[in-house]
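ugh ok so i messed up the first submission bc i forgot one of the chains. this is the corrected input, ALL of the components this time, i swear. 353 residues overall. if the numbers dont match what u have on ur side tell me asap before i send this to the collaborators (the ones from the other lab, u know who)
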Amino acid sequence: MLAAQNGNGGAYRRLLGEISDWLHRYFQRRLPPGDVDDAVQETLLAVHRRRHTFDPHYGFGPWLAAIAKRKWIDQLRLLGRRPTEELPGDLAEGDHEASVTSASVLRSLLQELRPAQAQAILLVKVQGYSIEEASRETGLSVSAVKMNIHRGLARLTAFLEKPSDVE
Amino acid sequence: MLSGLAAAELGLLLGFGMMRPDMGKMIASPYMVWKLGSLAILAGVACTVAISSFSPTGQPRRGLMLTLALALAATVAGAFVAPGSAENHSLLDRLEPVHGMLCALSIVVLSTPMIAILAILMRNAAPTHPTGSAVASGIAASTCGAFIFAFCCPMNDPLYITVWYAVACAAVTAMARWLLPRGFRL
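and heres the new structure output, hopefully the right one now
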């Protein structure tokens, strides 16, 4: 700091870099993450504006810590003044847990089937396609689609009857 | 700089012949020793507290408490230097409100240049407790003003001095507390 006060630009740049790291650690323990950078910048500006007040007889650490503490208090006051709005009571929506769980279980069950069977069941039984539409979509004949659905559902039923395999 | 300004103000007052006429007779009396002595001590301590609070590491709170304790001690000491004729008068006679207001106003006027100097010093320094520093500056300026005015004040009643000087000091301190931190940014 003494070298910086005497006009040594390189020393001043190095000093600001070093104290910037220290200030980041200081404010990270005391402020929300979004306010840390602002507090560091404010403190660096204060150090720059008031650098002539540093007295080398009293050490740099306490001088910097006193300024950082002041800026921390200022930042806390700003946080207190920041406007907050109450959330409306009807913001919450219905519970999706059941449908999410069902979708997850169905996906894991369909993985147990052959791909053609899984695709036929997904199109016709889940997404609401007709047999003909599913036939056009998959490129299989109508009877092949019906057979895949029939065999797939039979396989799923058999699979579900073994409780230890589900979940 | 502060003591230079105080000396200049005192020199101007004395130069214009505004010193109390019986100063030669009264200067060695216990009352005058109490008045000038306690105000000089208060002014010295308050100025030291104010200037030391301009450093980032300065903590004005302890110094302010010391200054207040000294002011209280000076007030208590004033009870022992009461002039002989004071007890025979009523409280209103002793306080002399019209004259007292004039004294208080004079102290405020004498303190104003001190506040200006302390405001400049504060803004060029880096106080981390601007409000405390402003209060300390107000007390310092007002006690300096009161000390200078004490050479001119013809009143010989410690109650009068305590009340009206305290009123003036409170007014100057409130003014400094309101003015000095405004727009200050570390």
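quick check: The mean pLDDT of chain A is 86. that seems consistent at least. The longest helix of chain A spans residues 60-81.
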